[in-house]
Amino acid sequence: MNGMRRGLSLVLTLAMAASGRAAEVVILKSNEQPGVRPVVDALRRAGAAHTFAEFDLGGNRTQGERIASGLRGRAVILVAVGLLAAEVARAALPEAPLAFCMVSDPSQAGLANVAHVGGVAAEVPVKNQLAAFRLVNPKGVRIGVLYGPATAGLMDDAQKGARLVRVALVPRLVSSDRDVPHLMRQMLTGAEAVDAVWMMGDPILTTEQIRRYVLAETLKAGRPLYAYSDTLIAEGALVSDGPDPVSVGELLADLVDRLAAGERGRLDMLVPRAELVINKKIAGKLKIDIPAEALKAASRVF
User: Fold this and answer.
1) 155 Cβ contact list (under 8 Å, min separation 6)
2) Quick check: 249 pLDDT over 90?
3) Residue 161: φ, ψ to 5°
4) Global confidence as pTM
């Protein structure tokens, strides 16, 4: 029976694409972490010819599987926002066309070089991010890095980039949220004290509780936080150099259009525009002098 349903879904999807009708697009969100809403809103605007439905998995795989099971047999194009949503989509509905974003390592997640699957890169190249951080805070040469298993694949490139821009990284792997207080104390006190803390966009680190804790501890220690998303700038981070959410949403809409038009080969991995965002007020509190060239290069200054 499941095989018949998968076959029917694929036939319906191909028929929809061949007819040229607007597609039914289902957006699966891993959770409502910072940056998700602007991406989804931009996708809806750029893909206004299609119809959209949204589901929030709330970080719960079982809930995601239950939502996905209700989509079987329907001719839909899936958009997965975040790693959990992408994993659930591929496992539960492998025949459905899929566009994804906010997945740090698509290869590890089984999303690379797969027919009728395309994505938008989750990160600006780490070398570029480090160069931007050094531009904004030239004295921040020793940078503590919080990362989790989902972003571990970026650390080799980060270390190479660090050497190029002449900064030293002090990486700390966060296996669970319980690790964060101990690792923050390591980085902010004693012989391991760093000039700044860089928080990567790992699912373990994107919960509101962890974000607020890391922000509070860095500010208490008189250190700036380098963020994975512009939305953390308003919360108190000094700088972010990440994908422009509007660009991500627009590129997702492009992938949806291509899937709706019947494209079923291996789709491109699209690279969004970068957006340098600076919190000048936080810089003042921390007595950091931001160079004029950094302010001129910024997309936005708070």
Assistant:
1) 145, 147, 171
2) yes
3) -65, -35
4) 0.78
